[in-house]
Amino acid sequence: MCQPKRASFHRTGAPVGRRYSQTFGPSMKSFHRYLVAISLCFTILLPSLPARADDSPVLVRYGTSQGECVGFCWKSIEVSSARAVFSATAYHPTKKLAPIRRDASLSPQEQKALQSLLASTSVDGLAERIGCPDCGAAGAEWVEVTKNGQRSARVTFEKGKPPAQLESLTRWLGALQARFPVPDVR
Hints:
Layout: H1 20-45, E1 58-65, E2 71-80, E3 83-91, E4 100-105, H2 108-119, E5 129-130, E6 140-147, E7 150-151, E8 155-158, H3 167-178
């Protein structure tokens, strides 16, 4: 009695001795071409799509630092028209501490206060370094303001001693930064 010969298959599932196009047909080849074309379109067009509404530009950056400190000694905040993003970096001689990053939405009242403060704040004519920031135990503060899409130079000064032009803004930013507590790791 004659038994039919068993077909042998390649690890791809295609019968041995048959070409890829013979096994899967022209529809599979065109499908692969379609996938490649779609991938190229996404690669080319995706970067040019408009940003989401909540990706508004940063209006002001503020930070504090402590030179001789153990724990979360470097803190900064980036404020856009509707959000505040806080980050803190730590130093500890015996522990490895991960940086902290948190964000929060600004209330409509905070947004209005920020706009008012920025409208009345000017860093023009200020030196990049005022006094002796981080020389003593007090530490340092710094501010960068963005107006009309142009970021100012960073103005750094002794902690708690801002120049008169930045006093109200610095006080407001310090209070906003205080909303993000960090653990004491001494």
